[in-house]
Fold each of these.
Amino acid sequence: MIPGEEASMQDHLLWGRRETLGAFLSAFAAVALVREARGAARSGEAAVRRWLDGQQDIAEALAAGRLSGARWAAEVERLAREVEVPALMAVVNRSEISRAGPPFGNDPQKRLIRFRDAAGQPRRLAYGAALFDFQPHNVITPHGHRHMVSAHLVVAGRFRVRNFDRLGDEGGAMRLRPTRDYVARTGQVSTMCSERDNVHWFVPQGGPATTFDVVISGLDPGAPDHLIQAVDPLRARRRADGTLLAPVIGFAESSRRYTAAI
Ligand SMILES: [Fe+2]
């Protein structure tokens, strides 16, 4: 053995042990990370299931008249601040999703969601859930609603959102007051109800974008399940008090006039 070789051999053995120990620790760490990720996914899924239950609670309260539309909207906005969009989408993507048929005009593609419970059975919910997938040219053109509420949570991309309060109907027009005009980013929600922001208008910004929607209809006993009417705020007559008298138009005309460029 030449001088220094013994030390070199010891070093080699030591390093060999260190490498073995290092590999073991790496594998251990990898397993721990996988377990942690699975645990986080499970806790994320549990949080989303509680969140869906929260949506159920307020939808039932609204339908029973225990919550006003405005209060329901405030509760939806509170819930939106609590949910992690990736965790929500992980649960959505494990649910039953079906396309709702070809979109009209420049409308986005709608996909219906049926959530499953922990046992894999379809859940019966007091609200409808859907995804709206927007390509850059797709628009939800301005329209008002009756007998229903809805919430659009941005889950991908961003949207220019414009809202109007619907102060009343006059002949073939809606009397409107502009209330919001902002860009909603992933994680933000836009709500509408009879009391406020009843007219909404969504245009994707800078590329494709998607919303997760909650809809509750049939809120007025004896009335139709829901009524949706396109309206033309850009051709409205402005009154001295600043309100707009906006004509009700057909959806074909609405889709022609209200492109993504506006
Ligand atoms: Fe709508």
Note: The helical segments are 5-63, 69-82, 85-93, 251-257.
Amino acid sequence: MSKLFSPVTYRGLTLKNRVIVAPMCQYSCRHGFANDWHLVHLGRFALGGFSLVIAEATAVSPEGRISYADLGLWEDGQIAPLKRVTEFLRAHGAAAGLQLAHAGRKASAPLPWRGGFTETEAEKEALGFESWTPVAPSAERHSSSYAMPEALDEAGMTRIRDAWAAAARRADAAGFDMIELHSAHGYLLNQFLSPIANKRTDKYGGSLENRMRFPLSVAEAVRAAWPAAKPAFARISVTDWIESGMTADDNVLYAKALKAIGYDLIHCSSGGFDGASVPVGPLYQAPLAEAIRNRADVPTAAVGLITKAQEAEQILERGQADLIALARQALDDPNWPVHAMRELGAENSYGQWPQQAGYAVRAKDKALGVTR
Ligand SMILES: Cc1cc2nc3c(=O)[nH]c(=O)nc-3n(C[C@H](O)[C@H](O)[C@H](O)COP(=O)(O)O)c2cc1C
């Protein structure tokens, strides 16, 4: 049996295989509420054979949204539409994950496909447009095209930490099986970690120990609010790809600290600050997952331009990671796992399709002479 299609257990959650969907912002909410788009977008990955579907960066408070159209879990009313999603995913064999997030100084940004705040007044009304002043560790903007943030004081940081914990409790009520702490990509927790955004002179700035203090206190609050039987993952940027930024060495220490407070797996991404030179290419982040796995002695997920079944299998066989996460390739082919299973020679790949489809796909392949 391939490694890719072998099960794995984190706390009380067993995943049927090692292929998961990475979180992907859909910018499709009004005032943070999930809707039919989220059900269908996420649901198709369960039908396609992914073992765990991680829903997009979900804001723990309104000012923590990247854009006004982000998903949120800052109020109880936002639980029910997400419950519909988690129930569908589980009913079709996938575990439901949710990434909790706060964008910090990268908040209140335009929708990416618009390239600016181009909404007409009528669209603003229809889309639930909002804009606001972001908050951050320091009053320094991300880049010239982002808003100038207000620096957080301790009361603001406490409020945000409490919001993370409350959102984790709501995620549990919504039926999520796993939660992911978004500590990557230049968003709030990454802003505290990295000297690129953190210019504080109090106990939250300066040394790595100080810069980790707020992110780790949030991580602890989330872990305490989240059921012990359910796994928690953390997504980190293993390197900022900027000389003066966070390095893999720094992140080995951060990953060890996360592991010590109960995080079960580190989802290894990179980058997120302006001016990074990222060597993008096939499997470019797999060595980062390997470094964290070996040096922090913690399970990892590899992500980033993983598109081929054999390559995904090799990442696992080489011991670079424990899970394979797909983002854009999953959008391109929501049935990637069932196709990969066939490619890796599994006998029962047709059994991975929903019953409504499996017999029919097999009949099609028989007619084409692709299978017996
Ligand atoms: C449309 C889109 C939305 C994304 N949203 C998120 C997000 O909400 N949280 C996150 O950590 N990463 C997000 N990412 C990054 C992906 O999870 C992933 O790390 C990245 O796309 C690299 O993987 P890929 O090459 O398989 O696409 C997003 C990527 C895309 C393409």
Note: The first helix runs from residue 36 to 47.
